[in-house]
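Z., the sequence and structure:
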Amino acid sequence: IESAWAGTGGGYAFWMLLIAAMFTSFYSWRLMFLTFYGEPRGDKHTHDHAHESPMVMLIPLGILALGAVFSGMIWYKSFFGSDADVNKFFGIQSHYSETVKDGHSDDEHGSDDHGDDHAAKDDHGGEHTGHVAPTGAIFMAPNNHVLHDAHYAPKWVKVSPFVAMLIGFVMAMWFYIWNPEMPKRWAEAQRPLYLFLLNKWYFDEIYDAIFVRPAQALGRFLWKRGDENTIDGTINGVAMGIIPFFTRLAGRAQSGYIFTYALAMVLGIVVLITWMTFSGGAY
């Protein structure tokens, strides 16, 4: 949040993050109050036989809890410390702003011999400097002073996330502990807004109308017209129409009489001789 203040001069991003922090606190405490202080919704048997989770779940939760509490303390300097600490952790070349200035590198001002050496290194896959982006996990531009300026943020900027957390906590207390009828009254008074938020901005309905239904219609069309009518129709037509037709036609020729077969042989010989005569004979 302090970096957002330093990067935008206390603009849109900073205030959006504060509002997000407030609502994060609100729904987190809401979850806590409804779970442990709200009206019981389970049956008596479940309530009487509730037990602690097994170790296979408690151990990972314990590790996650330790990380949630202490990881920010351990890696604070690496992520939000001085420029030297951040550059060292992420492998950012801190001298990049010195080697590349006004679009030129120090190597370009060297002698021709140095240029030949660098060319030779380039040919052999060696290391070289110049117009090369800094290596490391992230890129930090030379004119990016957000982390540095964030350390000099006003006191109210540093305290604002804590204040946002308190506001969210008080709102959750007011809605679900001190005055639990308030959410219902607000929902009735702001019915359109309540339905809009309850239905998740109607995102699912819009997504269904834009993507799901057209995809289903296209799939149904390809299924009925393409698969059933074209592919299956062609295969079934050949298997059930054309092949049986020629089968019946060939079956008529199989009369069982010798003179029929002799006639077929004579006709075949006539056709063969005719073809050989008009084609110039056999070679």
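Residues 203-253 form the longest helix (51 residues). The chain has 14 helices and two strands.

Let me know what you think.
H.
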